[in-house]
Write a structure and sequence with these properties.
homodimer; 69 residues; alpha+beta; Alpha-Beta Plaits; 33% helix; globular; Cu-bd (chains A, B)
Chain lengths: 69, 69
């Protein structure tokens, strides 16, 4: 299991949390997505390391921006 | 046609706008719902005057609060 923490910009409400959770959660290999609305932190647990570009694309698809680390 | 303007509190994003539009738009007799996110103004056009309690209940169902006028 691999756990990665991403920083997402622009989430303002529970609907935003759901949108990001759904898109990131749909990525192959993702087991769990936890989103903290207040901080914008998205914690993703997956069986294998994820392709950062795929995570970025999923966040973008949901309508938000991944902050570069 | 009757046009009423309501003030809704707590909408923060496009998802919120959609949620309010859907709930209020589903009320009997409603023809059009226009939501201005920045101001929280919800403009409702209906064939006949609406029951304010029904509008309040719809906004509440969407997860937001109608501001008393």
């Amino acid at each position: 299991m691999v756990t990665d923490i991403y920083q997402v910009q622009g989430m303002t409400c529970g609907h935003c949390v759901q949108a990001v959770s759904a898109e990131v959660g749909a990525l192959a290999g993702v087991d769990e997505v936890q989103v903290d609305l207040a901080s914008g932190q998205v914690t993703v647990t997956s069986a294998e390391p994820l392709d950062p570009a795929a995570v970025r694309a999923a966040v973008d698809e949901a309508g938000y921006d991944l902050v570069d680390r």
